[in-house]
Design a protein that fits this description.
The structure holds three protein chains of three kinds.
Chain A (H helix, E strand, L loop, with lengths): L1 H8 L2 H26 L7 H19 L2 H25 L4 H24 L12 E2 L8 H7 L2 E2 H19 L1 H11 L1 H6 L4 H27 L12 H12 L3 H21 L5 H4 L2 H27 L6
Antiparallel strand pairs in A: 1-2
Helix pairs in contact in A: 2-6, 2-7, 2-8, 2-10, 2-11, 2-12, 3-4, 3-5, 3-10, 3-11, 4-10, 7-8, 8-10, 11-12, 11-14, 12-14
Chain B lengths: L3 E12 L2 E12 L3 E5 L6 H8 L7 E6 L2 E2 L5 H6 L2 E4 L11 H6 L5 E2 L3 E2 L1 H15 L14 H14 L4 E5 L7 H18 L2 E6 L2 H7 L2 E6 L2 E7 L5 H9 L17 E11 L5 E11 L3 E5 L6 H9 L6 E6 L2 E2 L5 H6 L2 E4 L3 H5 L6 H6 L9 E2 L3 E2 L1 H14 L16 H13 L5 E5 L7 H16 L3 E5 L3 H7 L2 E6 L2 E7 L4 H8 L11
Parallel strand pairs in B: 3-10, 3-11, 6-9, 9-10, 15-22, 15-23, 18-21, 21-22
Antiparallel strand pairs in B: 1-2, 1-4, 4-5, 7-8, 11-12, 13-14, 13-16, 16-17, 19-20, 23-24
Helix pairs in contact in B: 14-15
Chain C lengths: L6 H24 L4 H13 L2 H26 L7 H18 L5 H30 L3 H21 L34 H18 L1 H11 L1 H6 L4 H28 L10 H11 L4 H25 L5 H44 L1
Helix pairs in contact in C: 1-13, 2-12, 3-7, 3-10, 3-11, 3-12, 4-5, 4-6, 4-10, 5-6, 5-10, 7-8, 11-12, 11-13, 12-13
The chains are: A mainly alpha, B alpha/beta, C mainly alpha.
Chain lengths: 312, 511, 362
């Protein structure tokens, strides 16, 4: 039996599932990386994802195409990003309060609209995002199964990780973004308003979290919306951001790790109650948060040791 | 030669409640080193922030190279050839030297990408051109303070500055670094015909580096002189306005038992570096031991360790004969210690609590202030607070307003009132009069001496040397976490100054 | 020390509430409902009969206790976002204690269940509290994660080891013996004698926070922890104790829900109730007295919204929208107000200089 478990854990199916579970978290984490670099503690990502999930399905339902759904999500992402920045950047409100309120607001708004439009049971089977088949990839035995025939956004995410990484570390705007969070007055005395970069980061975060939600409803669940379907993914994404120090590539890696544990949980369902295996990614998140802090503390202590007492 | 680089014409700058610059008119010539001196809060930095476009003046005009400034923001100032090195460096710690220097005008590759190689090349070029040695590819956070300042100067040069403002550039520098900085200033002025404006309150530096000097007091420019025509005495009396004549403080009594004893104390700072290095000292009842040191030489960490705010690395601290090493502030206070902290806003008060609450803090568990050990006796507390409020001459809108509504001086009086009223045998006092107006200083000083005459053992630390001289019975100098000198009786300012800068090394432990 | 009524706060609250209802009306219109009818149905839903009034009082109790639990944490500077998990665990454990002790006198069972619920909630809050104080891990994320974990854990217990012997009852624990049930005060409603205990706890919490030396030390710790530590207060201990008490209070609310309303554990014990309490605490700006009053207001809204859903077919989540929009407006109002004030001060300063100049010219 133990062998069976191991076999099912390290199957292509597990790794494919890892990819699927990781993608919405990864997309949101990319957005969270932007606000984190801009020095904003963004715990409102869960709400942003939920709005993305809803408006994706709504667009798809209204216009009969997933593309229209995504277009609506992008518009919504910009609006939500602007809204978030208005409070956090312009009014300098407490990020924690605004983030929490945004999450509750999103839950209320999407549930209200969903019930008003689709009725109490929600909606299913709206036009969904296509899966992508890459010819020839199947020839590679294990990888082919893992990487091929996935929903469009899984591949889009790879592209976005690269783009966001280049943006943050290889373009002047990325430098300004990081300066706006790390030391805003530096940017101000250089003649660039740090607030501008914070607004930009909020909008990008709204867009990317929106895409995360769209992938959830239009990709993963094939055009379905269910109430509270973000299911704390925004918070997991936040943990990924902290863990990765907002490096998009590392954040994607962290998201994959969650995906992996989530997939293992699903595999173990035959042996252990799914209610217990469901907790694994969340426990991992807590362990990660602790690890991040302990790591930085140890590093500091280490730095102290490296520099000996001054010699006079 | 007498071309005008910068002209201020009737410039006034008002902040809520303060007139920081009051009708300042001043010409600064091209190619000169102009020193701007004045006490803390005299308005020097505000005036320079106007020039750099951070402040928009409430009134008046500013001309740079003959052109009037219409739009006050740093970008305009930079484009008009003004560069500023702030007291707190404007550098992004995680960026490299080159990345910091080119920030906001990055070289690009293919329009959108940052060209790091070009940035480093440009930096290296600049380094060679001005002879300011620094490695372009190192993250700024790994550089010493002196080198960081050099990066700041390079940054302004990169941006094409012809006029360079240096805001208290030597406050954080070692003497060697100061010498190097001055050499750099002389070079850019001589070779590039640059104009340098240096803000400082160290008068010997003014004499050492500047061509002309302007003195500010309470927002007004009280005079401009050729440096060659003045000496420290003249400048000092211009700064203060009148010869400083404090009332003589009457010190009585003889020192008694040793109340504070520190042995082989080593403390690390927030970065994990050794800040206090195997230090020994003792303070006896009825005496004031003053610490003279340039900021950042371990005095803050020493005080934090003694009062329990920071855990010492090794060594032993004894308060009133009992071991206090590594105890919490609460336990140390219970041994008989009160503490006026150096940063009143962060540590000394709760701005959101009322004056009454701030005065009560620390005594809330005393029997007289609560019934059955938990129910607060509101009216007793209010009466007590009003008594202290009057006794310590706190001026504000009463005891019911929040402490944050008080002025700095009155907030400090709240701290002093609270800590002095513990009636403790040991007092640790840091920066008792920082940002406090003259009248209040006088009052606070007399209170300190009053405690001393009542047999209190006082450890005093202040950035204001005159204050240390005036109040102390003995003075020790700290340099890089070690005691470099001990003085009692007649203090010689020169000698103490030398010890503070580490010029005279390592005197053995004071007892 | 003397408490004065903060008219500025009340004014902005009133304006925010009105604007939030206006926004709510716009959303209702957009979704094809008549806002006036909906709001009328809402008021009707809360007050039309004794049962609704009982439900609204019961919900006000939940909001008040969870809100105060949140205040207990934020007073000392720690945000307990994990009350939902603490509440669920308190409910399931409190319930199971009653099942295990079946046959004993209710004088034994109810205190035992209450203590167990408080212990579980408190211990569950101890994890993030300890991590925050000793390891400096951000408590917001850990508590949210612990919420999800607790929900799954309770689900597991209700489906597995502690499941209801009746096969038709899925995901529910065994039912309590009726003699342990709290007495219902208004027949048909959720209002039970638990409200008496709730009133006592509320008064006690208010008293400790506002009138005692301990409450005073809590406040200082939250306002400026460095200053509190400097003045001799054991801030680490106070933060952990408050977090544990906050968790214990949430656990107790769970137990109240079981013994007063549901009589067994299932997920309808709480539907994100703690988050609604948290929202109330935020709107009240963590003032315990304001929390008490606002709990009634939002309980009316919530129960009214549920009635409205039944009578007018409007989804009750409009309630959540209105509640959060109030927060946004209050946040915006303070932001706008402070920028206006800064502008006015600048203008005044400029005028002062002009006046001074003209005087000196004369």
């Amino acid at each position: 039996m133990f062998e069976d478990i191991l076999k099912s854990i390290f199957s292509a199916g597990t790794f494919n599932q890892m990819l699927r579970s990781a993608t919405p978290v990864a997309l949101a984490a990319l957005g969270g990386a932007m606000t984190e670099h801009a020095g904003i503690m963004n715990i409102g990502m869960d709400g942003m994802i939920l709005m993305g999930a809803f408006f994706g399905v709504l667009g798809s339902y209204l216009f009969g195409s997933a593309a229209a759904g995504v277009a609506l999500v992008l518009a919504m992402g910009i609006v939500v990003g602007l809204f978030f920045a208005l409070f956090v950047v312009k009014f300098k409100s407490d990020e924690f309060i605004i983030g929490t309120a945004l999450n509750t607001f999103a839950l209320g708004l999407t549930s209200f609209l969903s019930r008003s439009i689709f009725g109490a049971s929600g909606t299913k089977g709206n036009p969904a995002l296509p899966t992508v088949h890459i010819p020839g990839l199947d020839a590679i035995p294990f990888l082919g199964q893992v990487l091929n025939d996935n929903s469009l956004f899984i591949y889009l995410t790879w592209l976005l990780v690269l783009v966001m990484w280049l943006f943050v570390y290889k373009t002047p705007y990325g430098f300004w973004l990081r300066a706006s969070g790390e030391k805003p007055e530096t940017l101000r005395t250089a003649g660039i308003a740090p607030e501008k970069m914070k607004w930009l980061a909020s909008i990008l975060c709204g867009l990317l979290c929106g895409l995360a939600g769209a992938h959830l409803s239009l990709g993963q669940l094939q055009g379905t919306f269910a109430e509270d379907m973000a299911n704390s993914r925004g918070y997991i994404a936040f943990a990924c951001v902290i863990f990765s120090k907002a490096n998009p590539a590392v954040a994607y890696g962290a998201a994959l790790m969650f995906g992996f544990f989530d997939a293992i949980g699903l595999r173990l369902q035959d042996y252990i109650s799914s209610d217990l295996t469901n907790t694994i990614p969340y426990i991992i998140t807590i362990i990660m948060m602790v690890y991040v802090v302990v790591r930085s503390q140890r590093r500091k202590r280490h730095a102290g040791k490296r520099l000996p007492a001054r010699q006079t | 030669m007498d071309e005008i680089a910068v002209r201020f014409s009737h410039v006034s700058m008002a902040f809520p409640g303060v007139l920081a610059n009051d009708d300042v008119t001043l010409d600064i010539k091209k190619g000169e080193v102009f020193a701007l001196v004045g006490e803390n809060g005299a308005g020097k930095s505000t005036l320079m922030n106007v020039l750099y476009g951070i402040n928009t003046p409430t009134d008046g005009k500013v001309y740079i190279s003959g052109r009037e400034v219409t739009d006050f923001n740093p970008k305009t100032a930079i484009s008009m050839g003004v560069g500023m090195v702030h007291q707190h460096f404007m550098l992004v710690p995680s960026f490299t030297v080159a990345q910091n220097i080119v920030l906001s005008r990055e070289p690009r590759r293919g329009r959108v990408f940052f060209d790091n190689a070009a940035a480093e090349r440009m930096t290296r070029q600049l380094v060679e051109e001005y002879g300011l040695e620094v490695d372009p590819s190192v993250p700024v956070e790994e550089l010493s303070v002196g080198l960081q300042q050099r990066v700041e100067i390079l940054k302004t040069l990169f941006r094409g500055a012809e006029t360079l403002i240096l805001d208290e550039p030597t406050a954080v520098l070692t003497p060697q670094e100061t010498d190097e900085l001055f050499a750099v200033i002389r070079r850019v002025v001589r070779e590039r015909n640059m104009t340098v404006i240096i803000i400082t309150h160290k008068l010997y530096e003014v004499l050492a580096i500047s061509d002309r000097v302007g003195v500010m007091r309470k927002g007004q420019l009280v005079g401009v002189r050729n440096t060659a025509d003045v000496d420290e005495q003249t400048l000092a009396s211009m700064m203060v306005g009148r010869p400083v004549l404090y009332d003589q403080l009457e010190k009585t009594g003889t020192p008694g038992e040793e109340m504070i004893r520190v042995e082989d104390l080593t403390v690390r700072d927030n970065r994990g570096l050794v800040a206090v290095d195997g230090l020994n000292l003792g303070v006896r009842a009825g005496e004031v031991l003053g610490i003279a040191a340039i900021e950042g030489n371990g005095q803050s960490e020493l005080i934090e360790a003694i009062t329990g705010m920071r855990r010492p690395e090794s060594g032993r601290i004894t308060i009133c004969g009992r071991d206090a090493t590594g105890l919490s502030p609460g336990d140390i206070r219970a041994l008989g210690l009160a503490h006026v902290p150096e940063d009143r806003l962060a540590t000394g008060v709760s701005r959101d609590a009322t004056v009454t609450e701030n005065l009560l803090t620390g005594k809330q568990r005393q029997k007289q202030f609560n019934r059955f050990g938990f129910h607060q006796r509101t009216s007793t507390i209010e009466r007590y607070a009003r008594e202290l409020y009057e006794k310590f001459d706190i001026r504000g809108a009463g005891t019911d307003v929040t402490a944050g509504d008080l002025s700095g001086g009155n907030m400090q009086k709240v701290v002093i009132a609270r800590e002095f009223s513990f009636d403790c045998p040991v007092l640790i006092i840091a920066q008792p009069t920082r940002g406090v107006d003259v009248g209040a200083i006088e009052f606070i000083h007399s209170q300190i001496i009053d405690r001393r005459n009542h047999g209190c053992a006082i450890l005093l630390c202040s950035a204001d040397l005159d204050e240390v001289f005036r109040l102390s019975d003995r003075i020790i100098t700290l340099y890089e976490g070690r005691i470099t000198g001990e003085f009692s009786g007649g203090f010689s300012k020169d000698e103490i100054g030398l010890c503070m800068t580490g010029s005279r090394r390592e005197k053995e432990a004071v007892s | 020390m003397r408490k004065r009524i903060n008219w500025g706060y009340l004014g902005s609250l009133a304006i925010s509430v009105l604007l939030a209802f206006a926004i709510g009306a716009v959303i209702l219109l957009a979704a094809g409902f008549n806002p006036l009818e909906a709001y009328a149905a809402m008021i009707n839903g809360a007050f039309s009969n004794a049962r609704h009034i009982g439900d609204f009082l019961e919900y006000a109790m939940v909001l008040c206790l969870t809100g105060l639990a949140c205040v207990l944490g934020s007073r000392v500077g720690i945000f307990n976002v994990g009350g939902e998990g603490q509440l669920l665990l308190g409910a399931v454990v409190g319930c199971q204690v009653g099942v295990w002790l079946a046959g004993q006198s209710s004088w034994i069972v109810i205190p035992a269940a209450a203590l167990a619920a408080m212990a579980v909630g408190g211990l569950y809050a101890l994890i993030p509290g300890w991590l925050k104080v000793k390891v400096k891990v951000n408590e917001v994320i850990t508590t949210i994660m612990l919420n999800t974990i607790a929900a799954s854990l309770c689900q597991y217990l209700a489906k597995g080891p502690w499941k209801n012997p009746n096969k038709n009852m899925v995901a529910a624990t065994a039912q309590l013996d009726p003699r342990y049930w709290f007495k219902t005060l208004i027949p048909g409603s959720g209002l039970s004698t638990a409200i008496i205990a709730a009133v006592v706890i509320t008064l006690l919490t208010w008293y400790v926070m506002q009138k005692t030396s301990t409450g005073y030390e809590m406040k200082l710790t939250g306002q400026n922890p460095r200053f509190a530590f400097f003045s001799g207060i054991k801030t680490d201990k106070i933060v952990i104790v408050c977090m544990v008490l906050s968790g214990a209070m949430c656990g107790l609310v769970g137990m109240f829900r079981v013994y007063g309303v549901e009589h067994l554990y299932r997920s309808s014990i709480s539907n994100q109730y703690y988050f609604e309490g948290l929202t109330v605490a935020m709107i009240a700006q963590y003032n315990p007295v304001t929390v008490i009053f606002l709990s009634f207001f939002f309980a009316v809204l919530k129960i009214g919204a549920q009635g409205m859903e039944l009578s007018a077919g409007v989804p009750n989540q409009i309630y959540l929208i209105i509640q959060t929009v109030i927060i946004f407006f209050m946040a915006a109002e303070s932001g706008i107000f402070s920028s206006i004030r800064a502008g006015a001060q600048r203008k005044k300063a400029r005028a002062d200089i002009r006046r001074k100049e003209s005087e000196s010219h004369v």
